Amino acid sequence: MALDDKMVEILVGVSMKIKALPLSPHNHGDRWIWGGDKKGGFTVKFAYHIAQNRILEDDFSTPNPSATLWKHLWQAPVQGNVKVCVRKAAANILPTRSRLSERGIDIDTQCPFCDEEVESPIHALRDCPHAVSILQVANIPTLTNASCVANWLIAIYTLAPAAFSPLLMLIWATWRNRNSRIWEEDCKSAHELVPLTLGWWNDYKAAHVHPVRDNGLRVLHKWCKHSFGFIKLNVDAAFNMDTGLAGLGGIFLDHEGSVVGGFRHTLEVANSPRHAELLALIHGVQLALDHHLTPLVVESDCMDLVQAIPGSSLDHSDLGFLLSDLRALLIAALGARVGYGKRTTNLVAHSLAQEAKDGQFSVNFFTNCPPSVEAFVFSDCNDSPSMN
After folding, report:
1. How far apart, in whole angstroms, are the C-alpha atoms of residue 155 and residue 359?
2. pLDDT tens digits, 132-158
């Protein structure tokens, strides 16, 4: 019986996923891992995200805008209590008078500011004259066609993303100001509240929002020559997110910066960019052993792996067995260590990996530097500092 095109497409997809499994060639004992987490461990936090996505997805075949909203909300550079307040408003569980009444509490449902409309979440935070004045002072669009807080937030992020985080702060401040009026008979005007709130936000960002931390790693910003007698290996990987095709690249340089070897290798499919980066490290160290390029110092621009090698953060993930293989190779390479360097320190290996991704190379080891990367080698190795 002939297979239809749809079935063939499904079978090819399954085949590629099987091929992409990060399998070790060595005999490791079987163990269970939680595939949904990069560290292989099950957490309540991850279960919460699964449940949230399942509840919110009315149609699994189409993207869910609310799921995107939660992602942007939790990643926004604002305080945690602001995120909690906005999440309650977006989920329609903020304890406004209308919501309390719906839950059986005998209460006047009129807005405590305007006393003209029922106090729903969207009225309290956008439509009430009190809220409108705050948004106008802050120059935040009201977008009154959005019928609820969640839709309003989605529309703001889509049409005016720069206003998203300030709006989160102002929603929290508006609700706080509303509570102060009810419980403390104190209320700030919009011209007082907006600069005060945005000032708090700027102070928070200055104290808490930083560039990506190096977590104690020595971070290199420029390629460095290493100590006399050592060979330095820089590796990188390039990954096609659509096809899973990956390219691995690496370059071996002596203490003077002269090329003593390198490699390009094309992978038909890899599981993820990090899987490809790990295979680049394994291939590079194995080639160093095969060609007696030791003692060895290794450098990668994948911080997750550099941190995981001496630690155990990924030992129970799908990459755990391959990490064990890499550690054994590093020991065999006279105790070689892997350090972290930014992409700017890794341009030669990066270029070789891109060439491997775009071509067809089967562990192509070379001793003469390819013309395509000669300029990068020259730039890296001339007048570069020494690393002692």
Report:
1. 43
2. 999 999 999 988 898 999 999 999 999
Q: Is residue 295 a contact partner of residue 264, using CB atoms and an 8 Å limit?
A: no
Backbone φ and ψ for 359, nearest 5 degrees, come out as -120, -155
Q: Is the dihedral of CA 170, 173, 179, 183 positive or negative?
A: negative
Helix (H, G, I), strand (E, B) or coil at 109: coil
* Residue 152 resides in a domain: yes
Domain boundary (173, 208, 243) is at 208
Per the structure, the count of domains in the chain is: 2
Reported as a single tens digit per residue, the pLDDT across 40-68 is 778 887 777 777 666 555 444 445 566 78
Q: How far is CA 25 from CA 46, 287, 323, in A?
A: 31, 16, 12
**In which domain, by residue range, is 168 found?**
63-208
pTM beyond 0.85: no
Amino acid 58: pLDDT: 47
* Same domain? 274 vs 347: yes
